[in-house]
Design a protein that fits this description.
This protein is 36% helix and 24% strand. Helix 1 runs parallel beside helix 6 and helix 8 runs antiparallel to helix 9. Among the domains are: 150 residues, Alpha/beta knot (3-Layer(aba) Sandwich); 35 residues, no CATH class; 113 residues. It has 467 residues and is α/β, with parallel strands linked by helices. The chain has 15 helices and 20 strands. The strands form 5 sheets. A 7-stranded mixed β-sheet has the order 10-11-12-13-20-14-19, with helices on both faces. A 5-stranded parallel β-sheet has the order 2-1-6-5-7, sandwiched between helices. Strands 15-16-17-18 form a 4-stranded antiparallel β-sheet, with helices on both faces. The site of adenine (ADE) has 11 residues, from strand 5.
Length: 467
């Protein structure tokens, strides 16, 4: 990923971002940082870039010309996402960091003095972003803050097992307290549970501390968390039918758009899907109407609607012109015990497996593959050092993509791959589930053999006609 920073102080940006994790990420070619001195582009023979504001007022403004020319030199004819770093912008948060991390190139424009001539901002800026309600002397520090938050989401920048996307601000909760050696320091001991080795108990303890901390210092986040918990409870009345929506909320991915009784609507940005369930056609009609009128706004134009009732499938087709792409049933693994994995050589796939994956998974492109390895959940079964099959987690959180080479079928490799993935997900305290095409009897048999429960009800995936 490439970051371009348009600034009057390029050395400040370079010094701040060339060390530690981001310095290493640049050396490894995972990110590149290009600090552009706006002054290099001024046509003024004294190197001036600022002037007095028309109409009077304190201070000086950066003029349009040098900013525009610096931008043109960087963009080279492309239209790049360009962030103007300003206290007048939207407040930066983790969600925005995730969205920006999806771009290949980003331009940051740092203001100084009293700001920048509005006319050039109108021409080049796509996003106005602030880092908080306070005023700094310039945009360099805020740009560096944002670049740090975005760059750590680029695959490979942090070399931890599970993705950075699943950790802090997970599920609207703040992080729990952490402890390291020694177990006793200044007369204070580490909580016993953390020394117990019991991961289930540890996860439970951590979650409780996160909730406690969030309630104490961030009532805004806590209110969102509570609303989601209530929706999960309602969905849990028909758990097998709603496992996908419950897991999206539990894993911190879904944004709750609507919840009343057993009628729930949520949106997941990662897969670009709006998920709906309604207890009656009347309630379903009301929800669809709220989406259409904008009284319950969708955060972006969805790529999918995923609905649990046939009447909702009808409403969505009519209201949005989407058509049914998949008809599935859900299967979930709710047993306590981990599964036996017979095939011993199963490991995470990395970029080297791209060709193999693309050859054998007809529904995914390169972007999807990269995204799935970044999620940390794409595993291959290896024989004599080469992959002979794979399985992964889709962007909606369901298990899928299961593939085993013809020559290796009938040997239990598919079951091993799925069992392995189920065990990994259970370690995170997630409930593993998958969507099985309604007509795929072989897959249904595999799910039942592994001990997953199949839901008798159908869910529908609706997409745009042209996709
Ligand atoms: N420039 C000055 N103060 C700022 C802030 N709080 N956020 C973004 N840019 C700024």
């Amino acid at each position: 990923m490439k970051f371009h920073v348009l600034t009057l102080f390029p050395e400040m940006v370079l010094q701040g971002l060339n060390t530690s994790i981001l310095g290493r990420a640049q050396e490894n070619g995972l990110i590149s940082l290009h600090a552009v001195d706006i002054r290099d582009y001024t046509l003024d023979k004294h190197g001036k870039v600022d002037d007095y504001p028309y109409g009077g007022g304190a201070g000086m403004l950066i003029q349009a010309q040098p900013v525009y020319d610096a931008y043109q030199a960087v963009a080279a004819g492309k239209r790049l996402r360009t962030i103007y770093v300003t206290p007048q912008g939207k407040t930066f948060n983790q969600r925005m960091a995730e969205e920006f991390a999806g771009e290949e190139e980003l331009v940051f424009l740092c203001g100084h003095y009293e700001g920048i001539d509005e006319r050039v901002l109108e021409e080049i800026v796509t996003d106005n972003v602030s880092i908080g309600d306070y005023v700094l002397t310039g945009g360099e520090l805020p740009a560096m803050v944002m670049i740090d938050a975005i760059a750590r989401l680029v695959p490979g920048v942090l070399n931890n097992e599970t993705s950075a996307r699943t950790e802090s601000f997970y599920n609207d909760l703040l992080e729990y307290p952490q402890y390291s050696r020694p177990a006793l320091w200044h007369g204070k001991s580490v909580p016993d549970v953390l020394l117990s080795g019991n991961h289930k108990e540890i996860n439970k303890w951590r979650r409780e501390r996160s909730v406690e901390r969030t309630a104490a210092v961030r009532p805004d986040l806590y209110a969102r968390y509570q609303a989601k918990e209530k929706a999960i409870l309602s969905l849990g009345h028909h758990k097998r039918e709603h496992i996908h929506m419950m897991e999206l909320l539990r894993r911190g991915n879904g944004e709750l758009l609507y919840h009343k009784d057993e009628n729930v609507m949520l949106y997941d940005r990662e897969c670009g899907a709006c998920f709906l369930t309604a207890s009656t056609p009347e309630a379903g009609e009301k929800m669809t109407a709220a989406l259409l009128s904008g009284s319950c706004p969708l955060p972006e134009a969805p790529r999918w609607f995923v609905v649990c009732q046939d009447f909702l499938a009808d409403f969505i087709q009519e209201a949005f012109g989407f058509r049914i792409f998949h008809q599935c049933c859900q299967a979930c693994y709710t047993r306590k015990e981990p599964l036996l994995v017979r095939h011993k050589d199963i490991r995470r796939l990395d970029e080297g497996a791209k060709g193999y994956f693309l050859e054998n998974y007809p529904y995914g492109d390169e972007g999807y593959f990269m995204d799935r390895i970044a999620s940390g959940f794409l595993y291959g079964a290896f024989v004599e050092g080469r992959p002979v099959g794979f399985i992964g987690l889709h962007d909606d959180g369901s298990m899928g993509m299961l593939y085993v080479e013809e020559a290796y079928r009938g040997k239990g490799l598919g079951a091993s791959l799925e069992a392995y993935l189920i065990n990994r997900l259970r370690e995170l305290d997630w409930t593993p589930y998958c969507h099985v095409f309604s007509e795929n009897e072989a897959s249904k048999n595999l799910q039942e053999k592994l001990g997953l429960y199949l839901s008798g009800d159908t869910i529908w995936w609706l997409g745009r006609e042209e996709d």
